[in-house]
Amino acid sequence: NFMIKIIEAEHHCSILSTEMPTKEIHIRAMSHIWEIESRKIENGIKNVEQQLADKIVAFCKDKLWRCNIYDKFYFEDIERIVSKEAMLWSKVIFVDYLQQIPTQKNYANKNTYIEAITNKLKNLAIKYWIAIVCLSQLKRTNAEPELTDLRDSWAIEQDADVVMFLHNDDEYTGEIDLLVKKNRHRDKWVCKLKFNKKFFRID
User: Are 193 and 202 in contact (CB under 8 A)?
Assistant: First the structure.
């Protein structure tokens, strides 16, 4: 959702994904925008009405190029990527996800590894004046998530300026809570959003 809003506003951003290949990210973006089931897009754009297909092609040409995607098959050194994206005037870098960022160093345990990564990301954000948004794993629980549920290290909470959670008590309600549990510069708050699982859309 954030990525689409940014490129629709004609700004640049990038996604570093260790989870999904570039093609799947593009399919989800198109499913989100035009509310088309992803399987229809996967089966080929010819399965979509011609007028809508033309809009999709135009969007890919005019907008989607503003988002650079680095998937797990082409993952480079993160510092080099951030430096390059800053020179390309990217406003935001999305990382999916924190616990899978590769590193050339060996660490004694997962805690020290995450601490080193979050510290590095924070320093890069300050150095290049760019927002870095990281997805993180949580400890498995059905309760409303708290900062202590961030997996593997307390350093995530310490280094982040903002920590947000998405929480859904009941997947059949069509709603999801956005919980801001840490906000270094403003108040914490909760916001209810509409969630359409079919089209990967949150409004």
Answer: yes
Question: What CA–CA distance (Å, rounded) separates 151 from 138?
Answer: 5
Cα–Cα distances (Å) from 88 to 14, 59, 65, 91, 150, in that order, read 10, 20, 12, 9, 32
Contact status, residue 164 vs residue 199, Cβ threshold 8 Å: no
Mapping DSSP onto H, E and C, the string for the chain reads CHHHHHHHCCCEEEEEECCCCHHHHHHHHHHHHHCCCHHHHHCCHHHCCHHHHHHHHHHHHHCHHHEEEECCCCCCCHHHHHHHHHHCCEEEEEEECHHHCCCCCCCCCHHHHHHHHHHHHHHHHHHHCCEEEECCCECCCCCCCCHHHECCCCHHHHHCCEEEEEECCCCCCCEEEEEEEEECCCCCEEEEEEEEHHHCEEC
Residue 197 CB coordination number (10 Å): 12
Give tens-digit pLDDT for 47-76. Answer: 566 666 676 667 776 777 788 888 865 555
The maximal CA–CA distance of the chain, rounded, in angstroms, is 56
pLDDT above 70 for 31: yes
Cα torsion 28, 146, 112, 159: sign: positive
Q: For residue 171, give every residue at least 6 positions away whose Cβ sits within 8 Å of its Cβ, in sequence order, or none.
A: 197
Neighbours of 140 (CB within 10 A): 7
